[in-house]
Amino acid sequence: MTAARQVHLVRRPNGVPVADDFAVVSVDVPDAGDGEVQVQNLLMSVDPYMRPRLTADQPLNVAMIGGGIGRVVQSRNPKFAEGTLVRHGVGMQERFISDGKGLQALNPDPALSLSVYMHALGGTGITAYGGLLEVGALKVGEQVFVSTAGGAVGSVVAQIAKIKGCYVVGSTGADDKAAWLRDEVGLDAVINYKVQPLKTALAEAMPKGIDVYFENVGGSHLDAVLPRMNVRGRIPVCGMISTYNGGGEGVRNLSAIIYSRVRMEGFVASDFPHLQTKFVEDMTGWLKDGRMKYQETILDGFERAPEGLIGLFSGLNSGKMLIRVAD
After folding, report:
1. Are 236 and 267 in contact (CB under 8 A)?
2. Which CATH entry fits the domain spanning 2-119+294-324: 2.60.40.1940, 3.40.50.2300, 2.40.50.100, 3.90.180.10?
3. In degrees to the nearest 10, what's the CA dihedral of 209, 214, 220, 226?
4. Nearest of 5, 4, 85 to residue 37 by alpha carbon
5. d(CA 121, CA 282)
6. Each residue's pLDDT tens digit in the chain (327 positions)?
7. Across the strands, what pairs with 167?
8. 184-205: buried (b, 16+ CB within 10 Å) or exposed (e) per residue?
9. Does residue 171 contact residue 194 with C-beta atoms inside 8 Å?
């Protein structure tokens, strides 16, 4: 037996989650049995999609959902040697036992940071890639608007669109993120929606209208965008973070999709297994040649996972939010 910790949801949040909604609990993890491995978590992901699940889907008083990268520290499964790095969706646990199902052996490129396999080369990366190129059906030279362009998904979307020769505008709610998007990433325009009226700023920044709007926010963002959409425009819907805590403004301009023949389509990362090989090839190349830039916010310590999740809704993160559990 090995003592390890788990993060539990102990009560349903009312609005924005707070620290008392969670507990860090010590449990005993058994040794690996026949056909099993014991995995030590190294990096854990916290993501906006987790918030809606806290309201209903996430059971109380068990390890919370989530993905991560771990190392096999005990193995009685011939498919996974001790020391193998694995990606998993087992959740917020320092150590866990697995029969190998759902584990993906990871052979990281030594020229890249391991952490990029949790964002640009991980779930957020394939979400951006598939959402923009397949659901959004992006064409070279189009007019693209990305909400929360400083976030883990949005920043990848914006850069892919630039790589594909598009005119790209992003929104963010912080001056430092706006500066990074403008000066480092090279977006054509950046809107700080907390200090600029979004509708006016969009009209100024995108006089040719919008062909593809990559939706991460919903509410007032979507309402401002809809009248600016060009005929046959596409809106891939990745998230609606403005509504996750029970707030958010209503959308009044939805009828605009009728006359502009706009297509809106939701999707999730698991929709794109057929793109995985090409995605890894493209993204690895873009990271290595410097065309894909990224930011990370890494909190050290397993017990900081609730802090990381709560911080997503206050702008604590720049780029991907990660929890470093062990080296």
Report:
1. yes
2. 3.90.180.10
3. 40
4. 85
5. 10
6. 899 999 999 999 999 999 999 999 999 999 999 999 999 999 999 998 899 999 988 999 999 999 999 999 999 999 999 999 999 999 999 999 999 999 999 999 999 999 999 999 999 999 999 999 999 999 999 999 999 999 999 999 999 999 999 999 999 999 999 999 999 999 999 999 999 999 999 999 999 999 999 999 999 999 999 999 999 999 999 998 887 776 666 788 999 999 999 999 999 999 999 999 999 999 999 999 999 999 999 999 999 999 999 998 888 888 899 999 998
7. 143
8. ebebbbbbbbeebebeebbeeb
9. no
**Structure tokens, 49:** 């999609």
Residues of the chain with CATH 3.90.180.10: 2-119+294-324
What amino acid is encoded at 236 in this protein? P
Measured over all CA atoms, what is the biggest interatomic distance in the chain, rounded to whole angstroms? Answer: 64
Instruction: List C-alpha distances in Å: 68 to 29, 93, 102, 290.
Output: 18, 10, 12, 25
Say what angle helices 276-288 and 123-130 make with each other, to 10 degrees: 110
Predicted structure pTM score: 0.90
CATH 3.55.40.20 fits 125-267, yes or no: no
R_g of the chain, CA atoms, integer Å: 20
82 and 38 in contact (C-beta within 8 Å)? no
C-alpha dist (Å) from residue 89 to 33, 40, 93, 154, 252: 20, 13, 10, 22, 38
pLDDT at 99: 96
Domain ranges in the chain with CATH number 3.40.50.720: 125-267
